Amino acid sequence: MANRKRLSNTQSSSQARKHPGSSMTQEDDDDVTFTQPSTSQVQRGLEKVTEAQVEQKTAEVVQYFLVKEQKKVPVRRADLVKHVLKEHRNIYPEILKRAARTLDQVFGLKLVEIDPKNHLYILINNLEPSDGASPINCPADPKRGLLFVILSVIFMKGGVVRENVIWNLLKKLRVDPGEKHEDFGDVKKVVTDEFVRQRYLEFVRIPHTEPVEHELRWGQRAEKEVSKTKILDVMGELHERDPQSWSQQYREAHSSQNSTQQPGSSSQR
Amino acid sequence: MNRARGGGDEEAPRQNGSAARRRGDPPLSDGDDAGSDFGSADLQDTDNDPSLRREIRSKYRDLISSVQQNREDMLSPTNNRLTEVLEEANKLFKDVKQAREAALDAQLLVVATDLGKEKATQLFSDGAAFDPAAFAEHLLSIMGINRLEDAEDEQQNGSDGYLPQDAWQRVARKTECCFKAAPSFHYMFGSFHAEPPPPKQRIERQRKAPSKEAKRIMPTQLKKMDESHQEATEKEVERILGYLKSYYQDDPTSPISYYEFVIDPNSFSRTVENIFHTSFLIRDGLARMYLDDDKLPCIAPVEEGEVEAGISSNRKQFILTISKKTWRELIDALDIKDTMIQPPNTQNE
User: Fold this and answer.
1) Which end of chain A is less enclosed by CB atoms within 10 A, N or C?
2) Are B185 and A68 a contacting pair, CB within 8 Å?
3) Where is this region: Disordered (chain B) (predicted)?
4) A contacts of B160 (beta carbons < 8 Å)
């Protein structure tokens, strides 16, 4: 019943990863993708602690993730080990596995590793999105709107965009990076600093440009959290066109998103 | 060498100025090959002419800045501006003899090729063209823009119409479905603190206590004040009564002249005080005054038994006026040498 999360990929401590943390469901004890040493160490480690201790640590890890996710900043494995696990680092994989299971079963959140090299984790919503507007009647965060605009432009333009394209577009929407905006404050900072730290965007310097220019791409979190097909759907609605008419983007959306798409959610598959 | 390459120009190698200049242009001849060995600079006079060198460099710089500044313009697929710039540079390059100018030429090429690459990407991904401007227009209608009738209202962001307060929230709402974002975790009711109330109570009690004490202190002080006043007078009256009685007991038959009793030959003010205090005795019925055979007033204490009788009988009033002159006359007339009532300060108690 319970979906064993993609989590299982994230457990081996320092070994090279085979899958970049994307969706593969696995059986609990089938340590096929694990590298062996960590598992046996885990076994040994587990013998030395009581079940209560393991549960305690699991609960702490779950809380840590939930709180960190408020600000949408990814969790670093090193921080997790240092601040929460402390002396129990040897059973880290087991604890993380249990934490992921709790997050999924209790909160409906998926623990995803967005950066296999640096071991960064985020939580995304594991529940099937409802059709139409969300039933939660909380006021929408305007920054999400801004983020959508930027991500969709980047996507529609092939995945990379020069920063000026974004700034010009925003100006047309009455958002001037040079001025303080009512909803966003320092827009430039929100885009180039906050969204980058949250891993929604990447803001990279283009070499040899004078004055210095940057380009914007999707960040690691966006790759996992945002659905390209859905973006195309919204675009189709806005422009009153069939999403398939953007052939290249359509292909891109369906090829890379197959593994992370929610089953049965969108009409285009 | 990329001589024959058409549109798809990626990172052109930046070695020779001439090599990467082909962008579908007919191959240029002449000075190109000569330019490929700019390492060996000619040292002839014409080549070293400083003003010519400066001119070339300045033209290169102009070209570079024009590319940088008109970037959007050059990117547009509708014109050939970029090509023109390159042709211009080609012409300049014929005169390049020294390393400095060649370096500028190389810099121009870097800038131009970047642009070229971007133009190429535009071509590539615009198989299904996406126009940000149209996108912006559609977004504005989602946001609920109000286009004003008056074009005069230019202060609103320079273009017509203004956005409602919740414009961006509308966009967010509409596009929520694209995100699988985890909802932020917050405790439902938050934690509560039990601390604030106790300090308040303590403060109130403390305030009340001092005020009561303060009040208590006040009355006691006041009583003392009043008493001292009254006491002084009463004591004085008592004292004078004592004097009167003792004088009377010394010689009950001999009447005590009133004037002799009250007058203090040494002090007029003391005399007045004595008169004042003696009047209390008479008022209270503790002494009586009468006129003797010479029609002079005399004073005598009232016997114990007579007190009540004296009060019930008709009261008479006696008003006495005294001035300093009268006082001296009385002293002389009655030959008063010494005061019968001693001043209180001189007494030993």
Assistant:
1) N
2) no
3) 1-53, 195-214
4) none
